[in-house]
Write a structure and sequence with these properties.
The structure is a single chain. It contains 11 helices and 14 strands. By secondary structure, the protein is of the alpha+beta class. The protein is globular and about 55 Å long. The chain starts with a strand and ends in a 7-residue tail after the last helix. The N terminus is likely disordered. The structure holds adenosine-5'-triphosphate. GO terms for molecular function: ATP binding; protein serine/threonine kinase activity.
Amino acid sequence: KTAKIELNIHDRQPKKHAATTNAEREETLVPTAQSNQPRRPRTPPMESTHTAQKLTHNSSSRVKSRNWKITDFDIGKVLGKGKFGRAYLARERNTNFICALKVMFKSELKEHKIEKQLRREVEIQTHLRHPHILRLYGYFHDEKRVYLILEYAANGEVYKLLKEQGNFSESVTARYIAQMAGALDYLHEKHVIHRDIKPENLLLNANGDLKIADFGWSVHAPNSRRHTLCGTLDYLPPEMVEGRDHNAAVDLWSLGVLMYEFLVGVPPFEDLQSHKATYRRIARVDLHIPPYVSPDAADLITRLLQYESTNRLPLKDVLRHPWIRKHVPDPYGI
Ligand SMILES: Nc1ncnc2c1ncn2[C@@H]1O[C@H](COP(=O)(O)OP(=O)(O)OP(=O)(O)O)[C@@H](O)[C@H]1O
């Protein structure tokens, strides 16, 4: 059933204002010239032949990496900066497989005491296989850094697209929400709660399909650990801001917040005055849906943003909702 939460809320930081990290100061992964070799068919590096450095899950359920090293990859452009490092476009030399390489400094992981969190993130994400969940193919490390080999999402962050466009149309939103509902349903069946659904954690691949990308706050349910929550308050459900027990229904609430933000451009309980004000609006479910949102869309948002977690519309019913049906002919096949 759940985890007790300690709140330690910070403002939603635009990525470019992230604090300077070792990764920025010590830029050692110099992009290499792209080779002109013809491309072979792309297969995930894990499935490549003799290098088979697949992450394995041993009996004590610790995830292990084997043998990958930085020289197995050609490094391309910087895809972006996170709090703890950078992501690079990369190509595995043996197979020409294109991927993203996320590089973090061990010293920073230690300094911020997030090694455990990262280990959990890697352990969870490695075992997930879903078209709308970003694949983590493997990881390796050297003396100073940890590297994650990730599926490449060519169209970048949903957050950036949303800021550029202001909001999304109902048909685009319905497609994203159906993809999210499918992915969350898969996670919940595996007893994983994501707990940090927001546009910053969603990427888009070359086809414009959505990929859940960040498992930093995910947990296996049931879970009884206490956690310090950093990040935006906007997506937290009443039970989490009130420090009560919570379960997988937290992701249903966040899906409602996400749907609102996609259609309106700002999250429903945002209050720029103070965190306290946002907290109050969440706890009261102080929801105002603008009149330009269609009645069917408003109905789905309202069914997800229910104070009582048991009253939130289950994910399978989200996929059957008339608004999804109207815009997404085959919500199970997307
Ligand atoms: N697999 C990927 N495909 C394409 N772009 C990516 C990929 N992974 C990361 N990026 C880009 O690089 C940026 C930094 O990624 P990173 O995972 O290091 O940080 P983050 O998780 O977005 O941020 P934070 O560390 O603050 O949580 C992302 O915001 C995104 O724009």
